[in-house]
Design goal:
alpha+beta, two-stranded parallel ribbon, 3 helices, 10% strand, globular
Length: 81
């Protein structure tokens, strides 16, 4: 399950989806994101995600996921790995 799967499921259940985009193009968000927030700050946006979330859940992923995991562990804001 990735970001797109999570957004698809949230929208299917009537949720509002927000994507914090690392680049400058709101069109780079997955098609299920209703509110793209462009940052232009690359992986630094992961700090915003970790600090803003009530909890963080890490599953599979690449370097971005690893940075989110590291920030979440540092902030002691981790729900599950």
């Amino acid at each position: 399950m990735g970001d797109e799967d999570a957004c698809r499921g949230a929208r299917a259940e009537g949720g509002l989806t927000i994507g914090v985009i690392p680049g400058d193009d709101p069109k780079s968000a997955n098609p299920y994101v209703q509110i793209p927030i462009v940052t232009g700050i690359g992986y630094a946006r992961n700090v915003i995600i970790v600090k803003t979330a009530a909890g963080n859940y890490c599953r599979r992923g690449g370097y971005g996921t690893l940075t989110e995991l590291g920030y979440a562990l540092t902030a002691k804001n981790l729900s599950s790995v």
